[in-house]
Design brief:
183 residues, alpha+beta, Outer Surface Protein A, domain 3, four-stranded antiparallel β-sheet, 26% helix
Length: 183
């Protein structure tokens, strides 16, 4: 049985949850998110808590696998519409910078032309010096856009130049001169 799936999801005060058949909608001060549950999974609201469980007649391996997944997705939806999610990225390198230009994020990271990333719906960019913040209500979208931005120019191991998550440790390598002098 799923340990994660058994946990109840407490609904915050300012969040409203609606269940219509297999469709679940979460409304909050930051926005609205929807999900369609598969037929193997069912959700109910009891005492201001959401209970997710597999259908009794479909207690298959697939239903047991999806149980914890859908509980986590619904929990992330309730947190997203009430508090939101954000990922912070650091840009390091001489001349490297990011600018928010209307609906686009423009990255100057050592290429001949600047890299433009279009802002998806529900995602916000904020740039402060060398710190880029990606925020929104959908955890999956925020993480995906942050990964796309990081992939433009990953931090390299010799000088550490590039884009990395805030707090991410880059394993540094020794240069050729340092290695030659040790012998």
């Amino acid at each position: 049985m799923s340990r994660i799936g058994k946990k109840l999801i407490k609904i915050p005060e300012n969040v409203k949850v609606e269940i219509e058949g297999q469709n679940l909608k979460v409304l909050g001060p930051k926005g609205e998110l929807k999900i369609e549950l598969l037929r193997e999974i069912k959700a109910e609201i009891k005492d201001n808590e959401i209970l997710v469980f597999p259908q009794k007649e479909n207690l298959s391996k697939k239903a047991r696998r999806l149980w914890g997944l859908y509980r986590a997705l619904i929990f992330n939806m309730t947190v997203g519409v009430s508090q939101g999610f954000e990922k912070k990225l650091e840009i390091e390198g001489i001349g490297y910078k990011a600018i928010v230009d209307g609906e686009n994020l423009v990255l100057n990271v050592g290429f001949t032309n600047p890299v433009r990333i279009k802002k998806p719906e529900g995602i916000n960019f904020l740039v402060e010096k060398n710190l880029l913040t990606v925020s929104g209500i959908d955890k999956e979208k925020v993480g995906q856009i942050a990964a796309i931005i990081r992939k433009v120019k990953k931090s390299e191991p010799y000088k550490g130049k590039g884009i990395r998550y805030q707090g991410e440790k880059i394993r540094r390598k020794e240069g050729k001169k340092v290695v030659a002098t040790k012998k």
